[in-house]
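Worked problem 6 (solution included).
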Amino acid sequence: MATAPARPQAEKLDPKVVKTALILIVGAMAVIFDTTIVSVALRVLAVKLNTSVATIQWVTTGYLLALAIAVPLSAWGLKRFGGKRLWMFSLAVFMIGSIGSSLAWNVGSLIGWRVVQGVGGGLLLPLMTTLIFQAAGGKSLGRLVTYVALPALLGPILGPVIGGAILTHLSWRFMFWVNVPFCIAGLLLAWRHLADDTPGEARGMARGIIAAPKAKLDVPGLLLIAPGTAVLLYGLANAGTSAGFGRPDVYIPLVTGAALLAAFTWYALRKARPLVEIRLLAKRSVASSSAALFFSGFSLYGAMLLLPLFYQDVRGATALTAGIVLVPQGIGAALSRTVAGSNIDKFGSRLIVLGGCVIVAAATVPFAFAGPHTSSWLLALWMIIRGFGLGAVTMPLMVAAYVGLDKEQIPHSSVLTRTAQQIGGSFGTAVLAVILEGAIATHHGSLADAFHVAFWWSAGFSAVAVLLALWLPGAQRTPPPQAAPDAQPALVAHAD
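Solution. The predicted structure is:
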């Protein structure tokens, strides 16, 4: 008679991998805090710099465009310069951009320094994920992602509050100085403790020996994917600010960007070593996680547009209050860190993402009925639940993107998934902005009713993500290493 299998013991995380993760997280916190702090500051910046809202939007748009151009370079830069050198360079660029932003003398200079920040941030975010997962060697990815996701979980908790407090009590310039201590600490920790992984050519030159040739930059690929992504995001940004897709400054960039990305796909499929390995999308793990991350951008970034505006326009909250009321969502995401992360290795990504998407959709619905006098405590409770669902979606999607990949493929998966999430977030924000503006016109200026329509759409997008989650890697049953031939199999994650 076959005996019931014992569930496999969770692998212990290598202390060296945990140390690497924590060192990289310190630097990454600068990027995450910067994004969440600036998101609540645009109205104040427009007043302080005596410019229009359309112009001040370039503080965000310029950053996103620079980010889009830099992200594809991270895979090549890692192979060309090594992780430690590229990480320290990127962190230094981001710090210089932060200091420059704080010293900006007009809106043009602020936008310029934000572009510098975007270059550093575009290299840092995919590089952090790549270095951590490469160090892990494919082991205990579910437990490891609880460290990788830490910046993304803490940012929504503390960023809006810090930003609101600075805007209320200090000069807006201090928003950018928040990043500097994280950058300095991250640089020192990386310099002292990250392993030197300089590629063979540089080490060989230093020692006077012949080494392997350096990695060559795929210039044609860069000239297709970088402007393609940037122009596409530019069109989406214009759609969000103008609340419509029918203007030439929206549909022309969208069509141009889509054509350039299609051309890059055709080019990359025919090149032996392209800048970004598009062929990885043939793997179910990468393709499904990229698609789900695209639609999760609708839920995450789209709601980042709706929720602060809802509290300020419908409930009359200040910028600081709007930041504080978003804290429960971040707390919910942090609470999901242990529950979701510890179970990914046991059950696979599919089941956890399914549950998370259902929770996000269900917890968004109450806002479709909320008004100026709805209990703040009740809305805070739903924000906690919604945040828990978002955290339960984000972490397993990060793991799913790397299941079954070797060390050389991990940087390319980081670029693909980061780009999918970035475009999805911009697209979701633009679509929900258009929906909100149309609802305001339809309901003749009734803001509460207009927001109700937008929140229903947001919940619907989360429901679409439920369907995409069915495509994710699940769990397959394989016999334990020393099990009897007729023993029942144990649960392990699989890629296809």
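Discussion: The chain is about 75% helix and 0% strand.
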